[in-house]
Amino acid sequence: MVYAIVRAGGRQEKVSVGDLVTLDRVPAEAGSTIELPALLLVDGDKVTSAASDLANVKVTAEVVENLRGPKIVIQKYKNKTGYKRRMGFRSALTKVKVTSIA
Questions:
Q1: Backbone phi, then psi, for 54, in 5-degree steps?
Q2: Which residues partner with 66 through β-bridges?
Q3: Does an H or E element contain 95, and which?
Q4: Helix, strand, or coil (residue 3)
């Protein structure tokens, strides 16, 4: 089985061909292709982690859609002072499908 560890959106993700991965927003339109930098490549028993070898590895993915994550509710409260504050946040995300690891 071939899979790679890629850097995407400040995090590392384990991907193989055909996987759907949700990343932080990538500046690309739906249907376009992006390239993700590989940090590790596993091909059966062979593990590649040298930077010189990984420079030749290309992990390409197709942007499926741009979406927003679930709402996170932020509440602040201080006892006996009457202070209450409520805010919400939804992160901007991109769903991609890995098309090839070469």
A1: -75, -15
A2: 94
A3: strand 92-101
A4: strand
Single-letter residue type at 66: N
More confident residue, 55 or 10: 55
Whole-angstrom Cα distance, residue 8 to residue 22?
Answer: 9
Domain ranges of the chain: 2-101
Cα dihedral 40/43/45/46 (nearest 10):
-60
Given a cut of 90, is residue 13 above it in pLDDT? yes
The residue ranking higher by pLDDT, 21 or 10, is 21
Q: Write the single-letter amino acid at 57.
A: V
**pTM for the full model?**
0.83
3-state secondary structure labels for all residues of 49-92: CCHHHHCCCCEEEEEEEEEECCCEEEEEEECCCCEEEEEEECCE
Given CA atoms 61, 63, 66, 69 in this order, what sign does their dihedral have? negative
DSSP H or E stretch at residue 11 = strand 11-15
